[in-house]
């Protein structure tokens, strides 16, 4: 017996075709088929911007991370490789501006934290060389401004602060910093730092229980004051209060196949965009209301080609566009929202 999967919208037309066919040919066609009709529909919220960047030959290494300075319309891409520029700077329209390579060993995560008075780029460096195991702040042209950690030396210390494979960071407009430290290294911890780099609170222990981690890989903050961490090895997202560090809950029902590798909210706060590395997939997840964590609810998916491997992503806070750093395809791709419902910037 032949078996077909038919979407709800097309089932009626397909059935009508088979009925007409059977009448004209005189054969009982319908008895030879079994139908499984899926009534599930997904919202299509984004489209691939095939014109970004204008020229892709600037990607000469493995593109591990991407950051967006929505205030100045700039996109930063950090890549790995020998004898190549480690940081590329594009416009949001895809035009290449410049590159730099100073004091960057092996970039893992990147974040643009610009204000009206300063353009800043933060990079987590997991290299084993003289610049590795640090979190560094640069200006837009690659001048080193600040170094956190002990350059070239991994560790677990808090005074002075040490890192081992720091994965990513998120910087609020207030200057407060949220760091996930431990992309397979000694540490599995989430740290909040003040704008003058004092530790405000910390969760740090390997494990599967609440506020414990197994490869905390990405971190972001929502408008309700909640910190969201992609606890990749534990196949879940954990949520904390940004002021107190209190554990608020976790999502794991969406990640039975693979854990999340990156998390970012849309500008309106309605959706959380999640990357799943080895599935080469992006999830658009409904954000929970204030005061509730609930369960993960997928609104839409963006399935990428096999072995594209989306590592980390960023969402433009003005336009709502998603930029995806793909270590398998060695490129960054841009997905533009189809309508204003996912691109309006509330503040």
TrEMBL record:
Gene3D superfamilies: TolB, C-terminal domain (2.120.10.30). InterPro entries: 6-blade_b-propeller_TolB-like, NHL_repeat. It comes from the Eukaryota. The keyword Signal applies. The keyword Repeat applies. NHL repeats lie at residues 204-243. Keywords: Glycoprotein, Repeat, Signal. This is NHL repeat-containing protein 3. The lineage of its organism: Eukaryota, Metazoa, Chordata, Craniata, Vertebrata.
């Amino acid at each position: 017996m032949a078996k077909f999967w038919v979407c709800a919208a097309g089932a009626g037309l397909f059935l009508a075709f088979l009925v007409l066919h059977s009448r004209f040919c005189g054969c009982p066609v319908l008895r030879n088929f079994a139908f499984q009709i899926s009534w599930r529909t997904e919202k299509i919220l984004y489209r691939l911007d095939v014109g970004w960047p204008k020229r892709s030959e600037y990607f000469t290494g493995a593109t591990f991370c991407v950051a967006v300075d929505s205030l100045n319309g700039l996109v930063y891409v950090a890549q790995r490789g020998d004898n190549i520029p480690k940081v590329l700077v594009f416009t949001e329209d895809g035009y290449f501006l410049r590159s730099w390579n100073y004091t960057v060993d092996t970039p893992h995560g990147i974040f643009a934290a610009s204000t009206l008075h300063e353009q800043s780029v933060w990079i987590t460096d997991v290299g084993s060389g003289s610049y590795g195991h640090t979190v560094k702040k640069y200006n837009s042209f690659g001048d080193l401004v600040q170094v956190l950690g002990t350059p070239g030396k991994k560790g677990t210390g808090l005074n002075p602060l040490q890192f081992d494979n720091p994965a990513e960071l998120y910087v609020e407009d207030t200057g407060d910093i949220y760091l996930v430290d431990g992309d397979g290294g000694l540490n599995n911890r989430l740290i909040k730092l003040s704008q003058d780099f004092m530790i405000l609170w910390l969760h740090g222990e390997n494990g599967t229980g609440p506020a414990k981690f197994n490869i905390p890989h990405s971190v972001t903050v929502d408008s309700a004051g909640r910190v969201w961490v992609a606890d990749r090895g534990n196949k879940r997202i954990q949520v904390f209060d940004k002021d107190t560090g209190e554990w608020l809950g976790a999502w794991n029902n969406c990640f039975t196949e693979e854990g999340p590798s990156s998390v970012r909210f849309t500008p309106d706060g309605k959706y959380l965009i999640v990357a799943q590395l080895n599935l080469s997939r992006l999830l658009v997840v409904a954000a929970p209301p204030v005061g509730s964590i609930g369960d993960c609810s997928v609104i839409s998916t963006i399935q990428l080609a096999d072995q594209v491997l989306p590592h980390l992503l960023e969402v433009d806070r003005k336009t709502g566009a998603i930029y995806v750093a793909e270590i398998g395809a060695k490129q960054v791709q841009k997905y533009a929202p189809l309508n204003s419902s996912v691109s309006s910037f509330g503040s």
